[in-house]
Design goal:
Elements: E1 26-32, H1 36-39, H2 43-53, E2 58-64, H3 68-76, E3 95-99, H4 106-115, E4 131-135, E5 151-153, H5 160-174, H6 181-189, E6 194-195, E7 206-207, E8 235-238, E9 240-241, H7 251-255, E10 260-261, H8 264-278, E11 282-286, H9 296-307, E12 313-315, H10 326-333, E13 340-345, H11 349-355, H12 361-373, E14 378-385, H13 392-413, E15 418-425, H14 442-458, E16 462-465, H15 468-478, H16 483-493, H17 507-517, H18 521-525, E17 540-541, H19 546-558, H20 586-594, E18 611-623, H21 632-645, E19 662-664, E20 673-686, H22 695-701, H23 706-714, E21 721-729, H24 736-739, E22 742-748, H25 754-762, E23 767-770, E24 773-776, E25 781-787, E26 790-796, H26 805-813, H27 817-820, E27 825-832, E28 847-848
Helix pairs in contact: 4-16, 5-6, 8-9, 8-21, 9-10, 9-20, 12-13, 13-14, 16-17
C-alpha cells in the first residue's frame, strides 16, 4: 500500500524500534480508539504489550483508529483494519482489547470494530468472532458500552490480563471450534475484576482489581520507539500510582487509591534500561502527584548524576502548588528546561476549599517566585469552569491569578512571561464526591468561557478552551446508563467518530442522534441525583465507601477541607500500607545505584575532561522501502536516537535547549526513496590532537574507527534506513544545503506521459507562484531522459532558488500532487559544483559531494 497520500503516513507503517512480532497460540489485539500519536503516548498500552509478549503462548499486536482519510480508503477498497506488527485483520485475532481512557473515544470503538469486520453488538457475534474486552478508567461506569463489549476489566490490568489469556487458552484447547462462547464468558466472570454483562446482573458487585506492590509489577524496559512525533514523545516511568490529596472532582485520585510508590532504586533501574534501549533525549517521571513522591529530589539528583552528560532532560507532569521545590527545579534546569505546568483548577481560595484543592495565594506566589528565580519564562495554567458553587467572583479570580503570574514574572526576570491558560468545563464523574451533581447548564458554561477568552486575550495571554459541546457529551457518557448506548450507536451510524478532535467533531450529528433516540443531551448531562439514591454504576466496587463520598460531598458544600490523608486516615474504605521506603539521603541513593550491575554509563563529548575540539564526519545513508514514508524530521530523529542507543559521543550545542550538532542535506519529500543522502555530525577531538593535522589523522588519533561507527549505527536502525559510508570533512567547508545544487531522480512512468514531458522541455519558461513571488522553474530541469518506463531527471537550483520536486513534476507530467504521490520515485544522487550557477553549466563540471 502506498501511504504517501495519507496524512502522517508514519502512523501506519509499523517497523519501529523494539517492535515485537510473534506467531503464537493466543493472539491479542491491543486497540486504542484514537490516533497513533495519542495511543503510543499511553503508558498502559506499553505495559500490556510488554506483559502479553512475555507470555510464551501469547502475542500482542497494536491497532489504532485510522484517521478520516485512511478510513475512507479502507472502506472504499473494502480493506479490513489490521495490526501494525503483522498486518493481521482485526477479525482474525483471538482477543480484541480496547483501552477506554476518554468517553469521547467511544464512537471510535464501534468504528474500529466495524472496520475490522466484527459486528459491533455482542449479541450479533457468533463463536467465530474474537472475544471483545475493554479496560481503563472509563470502565468504572461500563454501562454506555455494555451492548458492545463481552467483558470489562475493572482496575489494574497487570495481573488479570494473564489470567484472561490463560482462561482463553484452556478454553480454546477444549473447544477448538468455539461453539460454546457462553461457557468462556462464564469462566471469565469468575475472575476478580472482570465484569461480563451477559453473565453478571447489575446487582452483583464487581470488585476493582489492584496491584499492591509497584516494584513487583511488570514494566517495559524497552518500549517501542515511534518514528512520528507523538503527544508525549519521551520515556515515561510511573513512579507512583494513586494520590492522597483527595481532590473532590478528580476521578483518577479516587479510583486509583491507595497510594503506591515505586522504590527509588527500581525507578532508576527502569530509567537507565529504557534510555539505553530507546535513545530518547527526555524522560518523564509520571504520577497523579509527582511533586509528592517521597524521593523526588534524590531521584532527579541521582538521575542527573548518571545521565546529565548525555543531555537527557527531565520533565515532570503538572505539579501541585506547594509541592514545587527549588532544589528540584535547579536539577531539572541543569540539563535542559522543559515546559512547566501548574493546575490551580479554581480562581479563588473559597472555591478551592470546595473542591479540596488546598493551597493559599501565599503558597501560589511562593511557587511562582521559585519558578521565575530559576529562569522559567513560559508557564501553563489549567483551570476549570462550572465547578460546584461557582460564582462570578470565582471566574474573575482566574484572571487575577493569571495576572499575578505576569506581574511576578516581570518583577523577577525583567521580561514578559509567556503564559498559556487552559480552560475546561467541570465534568461530574462516577465514584467521586460530586457524582450526584449535574453539569452546569450548557448556556452558562458557554457564557463563562466566552467571558474568560475575551478578557484573557485582551490582556495578551494565550487562551485554549475546550469546546463546550465536547464537555457536554463527556458529561452525558461519564454518568451514562444503558440508554446512552442507544445514543452512542445512533451517533456512530450517523458518522460520528474522533469526537474529541475539533476538526472532525460535528455536534449537529449528535443533535440528530438525540432527536432520533429521544435522549435530550442538555437534560441528560445536567441530571442531579438524590444523595441517598442508588446510582446505576454502583455495582462497580472501587473500594471506596459510599459513606465517605457522601461525607466529602457534604463537606464540599460547607467549604470544609479534608487534609492530605497520608497524615491521617479518613476511613475511605481502602487500607493504606506503610510507604515503600523512607526518604533517603542523596549520598546513600547515589551509592546504592553505583553498586548496581545495571548502572548506566553514558558518556558525553561536552563533559569529557580532555575534549576541547570536535571533528566533522559526513555520513552517507539511504532511505528506502517503508522508511520512504518518513518525513525529513522523522528521519533525523530516527538517526539521532540510533546513535544514542549505541553511545555515539555526540557534541551538543550550548544554551537552554542543547541539541546534537548535526546538519542534514536537502529534505526528501515523503514517499520518495533516497539512495545516497547525507548528514554531517560533530564528534569529539582530544586535547593532544593538533588542529593543523588532516581530518583523517585526527580521527585516527582519537581512536574513531569509521567502519565500526557505521556498523554500530546500522545495527540499531530499522530496515529501510541504513548508513553507507562515513568520511571526515573540514569543519569550515560549506554546509550540505549550501553545497548541494543538483539532484538526480529515477521515476517510474507510463509511456503516455512522453507528450507532456516533451511539451515542458520545449517551453522557454514556466512560471509558478510561491510564497515569496513568482519563480521560473523551467531552467531547473537540466536533463530529462526516458528509457522504457523510467524517467531519468537531473534538476538543479537556480539563482539561489531551491528545487521543489513535486512542483516540477506537476508541470512536467501534468498530474496533481495526489496522483504524483502514487508514482514510485527514487533520488539517486546529490551533487555540488565549483563556481557560480551558470545557464550553460556542463555536466562534466559537476562534482559528487562525497
Amino acid at each position: 500500500m502506498n501511504f504517501a497520500c495519507f496524512q502522517k503516513p508514519s502512523r501506519y507503517i509499523g517497523n519501529e524500534i523494539n517492535i515485537i512480532r510473534k506467531d503464537t497460540e493466543v493472539k491479542v489485539a491491543l486497540c486504542f480508539p484514537d490516533t497513533y500519536e495519542i495511543g503510543m503516548s499511553h503508558l498502559g498500552l506499553k505495559i500490556l504489550y510488554f506483559i502479553i509478549n512475555n507470555i510464551p503462548y501469547a502475542s500482542a499486536e497494536r491497532v489504532f483508529a485510522p484517521w478520516i482519510d485512511f478510513e475512507s480508503h479502507l472502506r472504499h477498497n473494502r480493506i479490513p483494519l489490521t495490526s501494525l506488527e503483522n498486518k493481521r485483520p482485526l477479525k482474525d485475532f483471538d482477543i480484541v482489547g480496547f483501552t477506554l481512557q476518554y468517553e469521547l473515544s467511544y464512537t471510535n470503538v464501534l468504528n474500529m470494530l466495524s472496520l475490522g469486520g466484527i459486528p459491533i453488538r455482542a449479541e450479533d457475534r457468533e463463536y467465530n468472532y474474537p472475544l471483545i474486552i475493554a479496560g481503563g478508567p472509563c470502565t468504572v461506569n461500563p454501562l454506555p458500552l455494555t451492548p458492545f463489549i463481552d467483558a470489562f476489566v475493572i482496575g489494574d490490568g497487570e495481573e488479570v490480563i494473564g489470567e484472561i489469556i490463560d482462561v482463553y487458552s484452556r478454553f480454546k484447547i477444549q473447544d477448538s471450534r468455539f461453539k460454546h462462547k457462553d461457557t468462556l464468558l462464564k469462566e471469565l466472570s469468575k475472575l476478580e475484576g472482570v465484569y461480563v454483562p451477559s453473565v453478571h446482573t447489575n446487582k452483583q458487585k464487581i470488585k476493582r482489581r489492584m496491584i499492591e506492590n509497584l516494584d513487583d509489577a511488570p514494566f517495559p524496559e524497552a518500549p517501542i520507539v515511534p518514528f512520528t512525533s507523538i503527544v508525549h514523545d519521551r520515556i515515561a516511568i510511573e513512579i507512583s500510582r494513586g494520590c492522597t490529596k483527595g481532590c473532590r472532582f478528580c476521578q483518577a485520585g479516587m479510583i486509583h487509591r491507595p497510594l503506591r510508590e515505586r522504590s527509588l532504586k527500581k525507578v532508576l533501574s527502569l530509567s537507565q534500561k529504557s534510555i539505553l534501549n530507546t535513545g530518547y533525549e527526555e524522560i518523564s517521571f509520571t504520577s497523579l502527584s509527582t511533586g509528592d513522591y517521597s524521593n523526588l529530589l534524590p531521584l532527579v539528583k541521582t538521575f542527573n548524576n548518571l545521565c546529565s552528560e548525555s543531555c537527557i532532560a527531565i520533565s515532570l507532569p503538572s505539579l501541585r502548588v506547594g509541592s514545587v521545590n527549588a532544589d528540584v527545579l535547579k536539577e531539572i534546569k541543569s540539563v535542559r528546561k522543559t515546559g512547566f505546568t501548574i493546575a490551580p483548577e479554581a480562581g479563588t481560595e473559597r472555591l478551592r476549599e470546595v473542591i479540596n484543592k488546598d493551597f493559599t495565594m501565599e503558597e501560589y506566589e511562593e511557587t511562582l517566585t521559585k519558578l521565575f528565580t530559576e529562569g522559567w519564562q513560559s508557564i501553563k495554567l489549567y483551570f476549570m469552569i462550572g465547578l460546584p458553587t461557582e460564582t462570578p467572583s470565582d471566574i474573575k479570580g482566574i484572571i487575577n491569578m493569571t495576572e499575578m503570574v505576569s506581574r511576578k514574572g516581570r518583577e523577577i526576570t525583567g521580561n514578559r512571561i509567556n503564559i498559556n491558560v487552559g480552560i475546561s468545563a467541570f465534568i461530574p464523574k462516577p465514584h467521586t464526591p460530586f457524582q450526584w451533581l449535574g453539569q452546569t447548564p450548557y448556556e452558562e458554561l458557554r457564557a463563562r468561557q466566552d467571558f474568560l477568552k475575551k478578557a484573557l486575550k485582551k490582556k495578551g495571554f494565550n487562551f485554549k478552551g475546550q469546546h463546550v459541546e465536547l464537555s457536554l457529551l463527556e458529561a452525558v457518557f461519564s454518568r451514562g446508563d444503558e440508554n446512552s448506548a442507544r445514543l452512542l450507536e445512533t451517533a456512530w451510524r450517523l458518522g460520528c467518530r474522533f469526537d474529541g478532535w475539533s476538526e472532525v467533531f460535528d455536534f449537529n450529528r449528535w443533535l440528530l442522534a438525540s432527536e432520533k433516540t429521544g435522549i435530550d443531551l442538555y437534560k441528560y448531562a445536567s441530571r442531579t441525583f438524590d444523595i441517598n439514591s442508588e446510582l446505576s454504576w454502583e455495582f462497580i466496587d472501587t473500594g471506596i465507601k459510599k459513606e465517605f463520598l457522601k461525607s466529602e460531598y457534604q463537606k464540599a458544600l460547607k467549604g470544609e477541607v479534608t487534609p492530605d490523608c497520608r497524615h491521617i486516615c479518613y476511613g475511605c474504605g481502602l487500607e493504606c500500607k506503610p510507604r515503600a521506603q523512607s526518604k533517603e539521603l542523596i549520598a546513600h541513593s547515589s551509592k546504592l545505584i553505583a553498586q548496581s550491575p545495571e548502572s548506566l554509563h553514558l558518556q558525553s563529548a561536552t563533559h569529557h575532561p580532555k575534549i576541547t575540539d570536535s571533528i566533522k564526519i559526513r555520513v552517507k545513508f539511504s532511505k528506502t522501502d517503508t522508511m520512504r514514508y518518513l518525513s525529513n524530521r522523522e528521519v533525523i530523529t530516527a538517526l539521532l536516537r540510533a546513535m544514542r542507543r549505541v553511545n555515539v559521543p555526540l557534541i551538543y550545542s550550548e544554551g537552554f535547549h542543547p541539541h546534537p550538532k548535526t546538519s542534514f542535506g536537502p529534505a526528501l519529500p515523503v514517499g520518495v526513496e533516497g539512495l545516497n543522502e547525507y548528514f554531517d555530525i560533530e564528534l569529539p577531538a582530544l586535547m593532544n590532537t593538533e588542529s593543523r593535522k588532516s581530518c583523517s589523522e585526527r580521527i585516527s588519533e582519537c581512536g574513531i574507527n569509521l567502519s565500526e561507527f557505521i556498523s554500530k549505527i546500522n545495527a540499531s536502525l530499522p530496515h529501510g534506513l541504513r548508513t553507507l559510508t562515513a568520511s571526515p570533512v573540514n569543519k569550515n567547508k560549506k554546509s550540505l544545503n549550501e553545497l548541494i545544487s543538483f539532484y538526480e531522480y529515477k521515476i517510474t512512468i507510463d509511456k503516455a506521459l512522453i507528450k507532456p514531458i516533451n511539451f515542458f522541455i520545449s517551453l522557454s519558461n514556466c512560471l509558478v507562484k510561491r510564497e515569496g513571488g513568482t519563480v521560473d522553474i523551467r531552467p531547473m530541469l537540466e536533463k530529462a531522459e526516458i528509457n522504457n518506463n523510467s524517467l531519468h531527471l537531473v534538476l538543479r537550483d537556480t539563482n539561489g532558488t531551491k528545487v521543489r520536486l513535486y512542483e516540477i513534476l506537476k508541470e512536467l507530467l501534468q498530474k496533481s500532487v495526489e496522483e504524483l504521490q502514487t508514482i514510485p520515485v527514487k533520488r539517486l544522487r546529490l551533487y555540488g559544483y565549483s563556481g557560480l550557477i551558470d545557464p550553460l553549466y556542463s555536466t562534466s563540471r559537476r562534482r559528487a559531494i562525497d
